[in-house]
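Q: A reviewer asked whether we had any structural model of the full assembly, not just the individual parts. We don't, so I'm hoping you can provide one. Inputs are below.
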Amino acid sequence: MKLVDSIKKDFNTMTLVLIPVAIAINVVIGQIVVLLRLPVYLDSIGTVLVGAICGPWAGALTGTLSNIIWGLLIDPNAFPWFPVALFIGFVSGWCAHFGLFRTWWGVVITGFLVAITAALVSTPIAVYLYGGITASGSSFITAFLLQTGRDLVSAVLSTNFLVEPVDKIATALLAYAIIRGLSRRYLMRFPRAENVTPKKA
Amino acid sequence: MVERLSFYLERNSPLHRLNPTTKLVVAFTLILVAFLGRGLFLPSLIFLLILAPLSFLGQVGREFLRTTLNLLLPLFAFLFVMQSLFYPGGKTVLFGFWIFAVKLEGVRFAFLTATRVLVMVSSFLLLLLTTHPGVLLLDLTQRGLPASVAYILASTLQIIPQMQAKAATILDAQRSRGLDTSGSLGRRIRALLPLVGPLVFGSLVDVEERAIAIEARGFRSSRPKTSLVEIEDRPLERALRWLCLLAFILALGSHLWP
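A: Here is a predicted structure for the entire assembly that you could use as a starting point for your response.
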């Protein structure tokens, strides 16, 4: 029961109120990025933020609900991708747990690990649901790799490994910048504040 | 930016009166059958014979077809071009031009994938067009969805339009101060921080106050909560949901059958 109790501790009222704001941050920044025509998504900054200061389980819930909201409001195509968002929150939560959110280079490592997880999780979804070709521009790379004689799974996987790191490292760094901008007093109200504040001597 | 709160359209139709969970179950079943079932034309038949007529029964037919097309047309165009040219293992060449060759296997595969995705997106869309998100959440809470999850979803649906309005204000304010949002890539990247910063910090400030406010109103109480709204659930709908389970099992069976 130790696990259940530790999960419950992560979901205090501050966490439950932060999650909707984090999801809204995901959606609205995602739209600003589309507006600015940047070659990234940056639609999981809020998820990484919650993972870092409220723990991996809260991060996973934020990611999952984020995709459900995206599906409800903007495009039902988002629903089947929820496992990707779930793991983004979960992995960034564990990275923060092991102290990777205290320094900027730790955050870069987090972004990289999150990218690898996202690539691994999204590949089967892209292959089985969409036959490997989705609406995003990166499908051109997939098609090119298919032409060079690779099989479908490895083509989609390589594409994801190429595309994800830039997006996810930028996402993690932006989440880190937000945390740096918040006061210590504010951060201490969240269950995993010790993840992002310097260790006590 | 999206101005509306959700896809929901208020109409007085039999589809709107159905229990939200029934509609959710039917949507999931149609999707699973489309993906698991056999036959090249199964998903397209589900769309033409079930989803499209249902949308007209729900008096949302025009919006249903238009939104589906808007959401999926770019994907489909892309899918057909890419798969018909690059589908691995394609042998039967239909016609060729320059260095490209359109292959039958690719076209078949693109058709199957496209119609499956069509069923997936359009059945969710039909659910969303005919069901108020609040009613769906309430019904799911009464069936055992944790109240905290329902709170998060309902609260998010309210926060997003506020935040979009805030983002629009910040965008206008920064543009009027000379922020370049349409120049070269470097300039557009530099425009990101002045837009994101004020938006995020402004929204995070509200969090603490809201937490105190809802705690003072018994948010953490574990007692069962009563509801003002009653949602109808007829025996016929319960039967329909069992029928959906049966359809799913049949589809799964046909999928696993050698």
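A: Points you may want to mention in the reply: Residues 173 and 181 of chain B are 12 Å apart (CA to CA). Chain B has a mean pLDDT of 86.
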